[in-house]
Design a protein that fits this description.
single chain, 913 residues, alpha+beta, 16-stranded antiparallel β-sheet, 4-stranded mixed β-sheet, 18 helices, 34 strands, elongated, membrane, OM_assembly_BamA
Length: 913
């Protein structure tokens, strides 16, 4: 024993110097900590403690179940036939480090199992870490679990390590901290899965706690910008609204260094010398809930604060320091210290390199004068902006696609900065190729004819933007996914333009049933093909369900409730007659029949003859031409219209002597319209104007000796005559900047409408046809006698049999209709979804309208007022669905509530007038 002890001790020392722990009698080893070199057990030959070279005769791997043993031998760096020094060599330490670095094992040990004739046999014993068989989340919702799995990157079958668990805890904690749960606690417990060999499950428990709320935001150093203005820029970090209660006496100031330090920690940088009791009344009364604290938004808000300072002339402003800490009530306090620096102003601005435009014009468009507050952001936008009205836009509209403007500071005099704007105009770019992609259904020529960017012409940014608008207004594509990508080639001074579109369903099916006024329950079946192709009508392979792709419109509609009422409508529109110019050609036919027996008892309290009816047969042909002056947003439309009305025992108009007979209405209508809205379904900018005049032949002028009023009323209305004028105006004004991936924006719609129908002279009687009706939803099925139906939410159709009420309100007795009307509308709109497959937006409205029996009764200030809320749903197959709940303020009577003055209206297919 005395002999062996020194040798064993020497072997242990030598092995420790190689970084391994020796176990001479057994293979038991202690698993090392992750940051320590793992243990190795070595069986040493007794009686031989001197280092000697050996050749590795064999290497065996034990303890593994899943891993390839030959691969593990290769990773260890030890190979059969290698020469090693034992004991005392460093090969074992290196092998252990290599295997441990794979992060696959809980313990690594190397044993010498045999030494003979200069050869050595080794055993590498590995303890594999368990594999992840399953994991569960506790304390979170199912929807949150799916998101956490993606973020934490937990995969079944992967090796469970401490590093994996700590990484998952960090990711999950940060995820909830970003959402405002700053005190979220995440724990991961590992448990053995007995159903699988060497498998483990992870139980991830999340205790979110309450969301951290911003209590107070303290700002110091802002000597020139008020706290309120700074906080206003922090849209993602808002402090709670509160009332402050000031103490009755002045607070006592303290010179205690200890108290000052205490308040520095408690309140950040505010009131460092007031005691807690003195400050408490200022912050005791908190009302309303504050905004949730979000670390990511807070970081963005700090950048916005400095950017705001820069726009106010403080270009040297910096955030000296900031901190967030938990307040006494559990909320989050934010403290910031700002160094504003000096306020700067613009000095002289000179131009260099400009040849297309002179200095004075560029200075006028730039709109920055000497002495204006320095604002680098404004200067950059005035030089080049996507919003228009900039210097770059002027150049690009004349083909200078390669234009560049570099503002260079050439002198700083105190607080004044002089600039020289160096312009590189470059060559005028000519459009070389125009490519279109994404149109799977619509033929390319339908898109190409709408483009303002044509090969061979000079590039124009305005034309590019206008082309986008024209494609969107086709209604065949998702307006949010229209792409325009100019690809300039400065070598030859050309530019290629690539347009991309995304088709959307736009054919519409109408299948509905509704209560049509006094007709009763009416069913409607209609179909509209908005991208029809007439030229392929005889090509069977193009039918799906009808030939499409040429941008034409075909509409067929049938309404009926049996014997009482039926109506047929057909229309066809070719937007480019001839294919070369925007000449819109339309033709339509319609027929309707109404039997009053279905509702005569309701109206008259009696039963009329079964042979009573009212028939309408009509058609129209129109041609619209796009104008170039005053601008190409204008369109002039000519239309020729004919309607024939046949009455038999029909007393609905309540005109003595006019219940049977035939009336003919031949008229020409001229319409001047201008539309600059950016899209059809949810316009966010632009306007619509329409002025029309509708004229029948002036039969009475051709027969000056004929006294029409001496004739029977049915004879007077044989060929009716009138002149009719309409004016509509609509404006769409965006109130906010676009937000989100689909560019949602609040929009204000303002509209004004006016109509008048009159006679050519006093010798004739104005017929009931062509007049105006007001009130209701504007979709009354029973109004089949060629009248303009002007809706007003919150009111039923203006009708009463009370002569006194008629006199007070300006309504006609019976149903003669109005000859003059005006209407004003204001709506605030916001889109909930701009997805082309389901566009949804809400609105709040106020309206004022009225109708008048005669022009002498017209009073534009005697209006019926209403207000309410509504929703619009645009579904490609059904068109526009609308619901409105309006309150008619002039329907409120003493003793009645608001509910009695409210009315719910529904619309289908189109927005009523």
């Amino acid at each position: 024993m005395k002999k062996l002890f020194p040798k064993s001790l020497l072997a242990i020392v030598l092995c420790c110097s190689a970084g391994i722990r020796v176990s001479a009698q057994n293979k038991d080893t202690v698993a090392p900590a992750p940051d320590q070199l793992p243990a190795a057990g070595l069986s040493l030959p007794l009686g031989n403690s001197q280092p000697q070279p050996y050749e590795i005769a064999d290497i065996t791997i034990t303890g593994t179940q899943y891993l390839d043993k030959s691969l593990l031998v290769s990773l260890s760096g030890l190979n059969v036939g290698d020469k090693i020094v034992y004991p005392g060599g460093d090969q074992f330490a290196k092998a252990i480090q290599a295997l441990w670095g794979q992060r696959l094992f809980a313990n690594v040990a190397i044993y010498v199992t045999k030494i003979e004739d200069g050869k050595i046999w080794l055993e590498i014993d590995l303890q594999e870490r368990p594999r992840l068989n399953n994991f569960v989340f506790r304390g979170v919702k199912k929807s949150e679990t799916e998101e956490l799995i993606k973020k934490a990157a937990l995969r079944k079958g992967s090796v469970v390590t401490e590093s994996m668990k700590q990484n998952a805890i960090g990711i999950i904690s940060k995820h909830y901290a970003d959402k405002g749960f700053r005190n979220a606690v995440v724990t991961i417990n590992e448990r053995v899965d007995t159903a699988q060999v060497n498998a483990a499950d992870l139980v991830i428990t999340v205790v979110k706690g309450g969301k951290a709320k911003v209590n107070d935001i303290f700002i110091i150093g802002n000597n020139n910008i008020a706290d309120s203005k700074v906080k206003k820029k922090m849209k993602g970090t808002k402090e709670r609204t509160r009332f402050t209660l000031y103490p009755d006496s002045e607070p006592v100031w303290s010179d205690s260094a200890e108290l000052q330090e205490n308040y520095w920690k408690t309140f950040g940088f505010l009131y460092p010398s007031r005691t807690l009791d003195q400050l408490d009344p200022y912050f005791r009364f908190k009302l309303f809930s504050s905004a949730k604290f979000n670390e990511g938004k807070y970081t963005e808000d700090k950048e916005k604060v400095i950017a705001y300072y820069n726009t106010q002339g403080y270009r040297d402003a910096v955030m000296v320091r900031d901190t967030t800490y938990t307040s006494r009530n559990g909320g989050v306090n934010v403290s910031m210290e700002i160094n504003e620096g000096k306020k700067y102003y613009f000095g002289n601005i000179t131009w260099k390199g400009n040849s297309r435009y002179n200095d004075s014009l560029l200075t006028r468009v730039l709109g920055i004068k000497k002495g204006d507050v320095y604002n680098q952001e404004m200067l950059s936008k005035r030089l080049l902006s996507s919003e228009g009205g900039d210097i770059g836009g002027m150049y690009m509209d004349y083909g200078y696609l390669f234009f560049r403007a570099d503002p260079v500071e050439i002198g700083i005099h105190g607080d004044t900065i002089d600039y020289e704007i160096r312009i590189s105009e470059g060559p005028q770019a000519t459009i070389k190729e125009v490519r279109i992609a994404g149109n799977e259904k619509t033929n390319e020529h339908v898109i190409r004819r709408e483009l303002r960017t044509l090969p061979g012409e000079k590039f124009s940014r305005t034309d590019l933007i206008r082309s986008n608008r024209e494609i969107a207004n086709l209604g065949f594509f998702n307006p949010e996914k229209i792409g325009m990508d100019p690809v300039p080639n400065i070598q030859d001074g050309t530019v290629d333009i690539n347009y991309t579109v995304e088709e959307k369903a736009n054919d519409q099916l109408e299948l509905s049933a509704g209560w049509g006024g006094y007709i009763g329950l009416t069913g409607t079946l209609g179909v509209t093909f908005n991208n029809f192709s007439l030229r392929n009508i005889f090509r069977k392979e193009t039918w799906d369900p009808l030939p499409s792709g040429d941008g034409q419109k075909l509409s067929v509609r049938v309404s009926s409730n049996g014997k009482a009422y039926r109506s047929y409508n057909f229309s066809f529109t070719e937007p480019w007659l001839g294919g070369k110019k925007r000449n819109q050609f339309s033709v339509s036919f319609y027929s309707s029949y109404q039997n009053p027996n279905a509702y005569s008892a309701y109206i008259y309290g009696s039963t009329l003859s079964n042979s009573a009816y009212f028939k309408v047969l009509g058609g129209s042909v129109s041609l619209g031409k796009q104008l170039k002056w005053p601008d190409d947003y204008f369109t002039l439309i000519y239309s020729l219209n004919y309607q024939q009305y046949k009455l038999k025992n029909y007393n609905y108009f309540n005109i003595p002597g006019f219940n049977s007979g035939t009336s003919n209405n031949i008229n020409i209508k001229l319409t001047l319209a201008r539309s600059s809205v950016n899209q059809q379904i949810y316009p966010s900018s632009g306007s619509n104007f329409m002025l029309s005049g509708q004229f029948t032949p002036p039969y009475s002028v051709f027969n000056p000796s004929r006294d029409y009023k001496l004739e029977a009323i049915s004879e007077q209305f044989n060929f009716i005559e009138y002149q009719k004028y309409r004016f509509n105006a609509e404006w769409y004004v965006p109130l906010t900047r676009p937000k989100g991936s689909d560019n949602k924006v609040f929009v204000m719609k303002v509209a004004a409408k006016f109509g008048y129908i009159g006679r050519y002279n006093s010798r004739t009687t104005l017929s009931p046809f062509g007049r105006f009706e007001l009130g209701g939803d504007g979709l009354s099925n029973f109004a089949i006698y060629d009248r303009d139906i002007i809706s007003q939410r919150g009111y039923p159709v203006y009708y009463t049999s009370d002569p006194k009420q008629n006199q007070e309100s300006g309504q006609p007795t019976g149903y003669e209709g109005f000859t003059v009307f005006n209407k004003y509308v204001m709506e605030l709109r916001y889109p909930f979804s701009l997805n082309p497959s389901s566009t949804i937006f809400g609105l709040a409205f106020i309206e004022a309208a009225n109708g008048y029996r005669d022009v002498k009764d017209y009073n534009p200030f005697r209006l019926r007022r209403s207000a309410g809320l509504g929703m619009r749903f645009y579904l490609p197959m059904f068109g526009l669905l609308g619901f409105d709940y309006g309150i008619g303020f002039d329907r409120i009577r003493p003793g009645s509530g608001m509910k009695d003055a409210a009315k719910f209206t529904f619309m289908l297919g189109f927005e009523p007038e």
